[in-house]
Design goal:
Layout (H helix, E strand, L loop, with lengths): L6 H17 L5 H10 L3 H22 L10 H8 L7 H12 L5 H21 L13
Length: about 140
């Protein structure tokens, strides 16, 4: 396949940069967030959750070959603009953001992250952008 404008390579670069940090065992935002939950560091939990969502939406818009629309109203914009979306993503994001403010929501945060990455991974596999059960891109 000929990629005259380089958009496919840019798509792969966005995914290659952002996907591994969502779940990689040691250096991921998930790992950092789990550590923040264990030490009950609410500021770090909010900061790492925001970083997670930033990378998540970078991938969602890249899969749809759309420029990132900015940081505001991402759920509404993804719903309106994207034809390819992870399964049950919207309710998972709402669960994640709601669990941050709950006193006993710490473990729920990690569960929500895992659900979001699982459904995103399914979409990436379906699009042929990653191998099954792998954080490495297929090149």
């Amino acid at each position: 396949m000929y990629d005259r404008d380089g958009w496919f390579q840019q798509l792969r670069a966005i995914i290659a940069k952002n996907y591994p940090i969502l779940r990689h065992p040691i250096f991921s935002v998930r790992h950092q967030l789990e550590s923040a939950v264990l030490r009950r560091d609410s500021v770090s939990i909010i900061h790492r959750t925001a970083a997670f969502l930033g990378s998540y939406f970078d991938i969602v818009f890249a899969i749809n070959s759309l420029p990132h629309p900015g940081e505001k109203r991402l759920v509404e914009r993804a719903t309106a603009l994207c034809s390819k979306l992870p399964e049950d993503w919207e309710s998972q994001i709402h669960s994640l953001t709601n669990s941050i403010s709950l006193p006993a929501g710490d473990r729920q945060i990690i569960h929500c992250l895992d659900g979001l990455v699982d459904s995103l991974e399914g979409l990436l596999i379906e699009a042929g952008l990653i191998a099954t059960n792998s954080v490495a891109l297929q090149f």
